[in-house]
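Sample intake sheet
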Amino acid sequence: MIRFLAAAAALIGLASCAGAGGAGPKTGAAAIPDVPPGEIAEQTMRDVTRTLSADEFEGRAPGTPGEEKTLAYLVERFTAAGLQPGNEGSWFQDVPLVEITGKEYGPLILRKGDETRRFDYGSDWVGVTYRTEPRIDLKASELVFVGYGIVAPERGWNDYAGIDMRGKTAVILVNDPDYDAKGLKGTFNGRAMTYYGRWTYKFEEAARQGAAAALIVHDTFPAAYGWNVVESSWSGPQAYAGGKVDGPPPTLMNGWVQKPVAEQILAAAGQDLARLSAAAKSPDFRPVPLGITVSTGFDNSFRQLTSKNVVGILPGRERPDEYVLYTAHWDHLGRCTANEAGDDICNGAIDNATGTATLVALAEANRAAGAAARSQVFLAVTAEESGLIGSDYYAAHPVYPLDRTVGGVNIDALSLAGPARDVTVVGGGKSGLDAYLAKALRETGRYATPDPTPEKGFYYRSDHFSFAKRGVPMLYVDGGEDLVKGGRKAGRAWAADYTQHRYHGPDDEYDPGWDWSGVMRDLQLYYRVGRMLAETTDWPNWREGDEFRHIRDESCASPGGGC
C-alpha cells in the first residue's frame, strides 16, 4: 500500500537530538558521512519478487509449506549475497505462534423482544477468537455502543465510563474521534491517527473492560481499506502470538460489521448511527446500551506452531557491536477469499515480496561496498499480517541488544507506479534519522511531500512500530506520488487502484511488465541512509517531546547501555 506521511520542512536539516543531563544516546557531534551510490541489482529484485510470489509458495502463510519454501529460499539468497547467519550461527529466530481456524460459522442473530434479524457471515460480518477453544458460543450478549472504544486518561477521555461491560458486546467505531479534522491539531492529533485508532487497540481495550465480544463498524474512509480487505484478512487461519500473553483474557469474539449492517442494528434499537457517531467525538460521550442482544457461534481448530524470523548480518569493521537494522516481513495471507476467477492464493507480490527482495538486494550492495564501520543486520520477520508478531517478538527478545541498535529502515510494499520526484515517509519529523534521509534526498534530487492521508494511521501498521515503541529510531520510507509520468494525479490513481483491486487479495501478483525504475531509485535511498548510519559514530534520537523519546533515554542511561 502506498503511504504518504512526510513533513518536508521537518526533513530539512533536522539534527540528532542530544540527551539531557547525560541521559540518552551520545549525539550531535558527528557529521553525516558521504556515501556513494550502491551497486543494486534490478535483476535481484525481479527474481526474488517473482519467486516469493509464485503460486507454489501458496501465499507465504506462517506454519504452511509456503513458509518452509520461503525460509529455504531466503537462506539461499542471503548466503549468496554474502551475509552470515545472524543468531549465534543460525539463520533463524524461533517465533511461537498459535494458529486458529474458524469454521461452520452461524449467522449474527440480533434480537429485540420478539423481533429477530440475521446477518450472514462474510458478506455482513466477520469474526474470530483469540482463545484456543474448540467451540465459541456468544449467547444473548447485550450490545452497547461505546463510540471509539477509547480509554485515554491523559487526554481526558473514557468511552466506557459508567458501564460494566462484563457479558456485553461492544460496538465500536473505526479510527479515532478527530480523523476527519482539517489539520493535525486536536485531542487525538487531529487528522493523524493515533494508536487509539487501531483495531488492535480497540480489541485489547474491550478485553480489559471485560467485554464478551467486540464488533468494529467498518467504514472505508476512516479504515483506509474496503470490506474486501477485511473479509479476506479475517477469514481462514489466523496466527497469534504463542506462549503466555500478559493482560486480561481475550474476548470470546472480535469482529467487524459492515456499516450498513450497523445502521440497521442501531435503527432497530431506535438509534441513529450518524447521530451517535457525531456524539462520540466529544469527551462527554457516554456508552449507549442498545437493548438488543447478539448471538452467534462457530467451531475452531487450532495448532501450536513455531514460525521463524530470518536473521543475517554483515559484521562491522570497527564497531561490530553496534548495529543498524534493515527490516521487512516475508509473510502474507496464504489462502484467502477467492476472486471471480476462483484464485484463492493471496500471493503478496507487492506486499511484501518486494520488501523481502529489497533485503537481498541491499545485502548484495553493502557486501560489494565492503564492511561498514558498524554491523548491518538484515531481518526478515514473520507474521506481520497477523499483527506485527514477528517483529514484536524480536524487539521483545532481541538477538542484538536494542541499546546497541543505532536505528534502521523498514521496507514494506514498494510502489511499482514508476519513478517519482518525491518520496513519502511514515512518521517523518519524529527523530534525528530525518537528517540522514534529507541528505540522501538532496543527493538524489528528490523531495519529501506532506501526508494527504494521516488519518489512515500507517505509522502503526508495519514492523518499524515494534522497534519504535521500544525506543529504537526507525525510518519507514516509500515511493512518492508525484510521478515523473503523470504527476500526482497518476500517482494517486495507481495507489487507489492497488488498494481497491489488489491489496490483500489474490490479484497482488507478480507482473513481468512492471516498471522497476522507480523502485531502484527508492532502493538507493534505503542504501544511502543505512550506510550513513553504519559509517557514522552518531546515535540519532527521537525529538524532544516525542512519544518514544523517554523510552530511548532510559534505555541508553541504564547500566551497561551501549548508546
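Comment: The domain at 100-302 is CATH 3.50.30.30 (Glucose Oxidase; domain 1). The radius of gyration is 23 Å.
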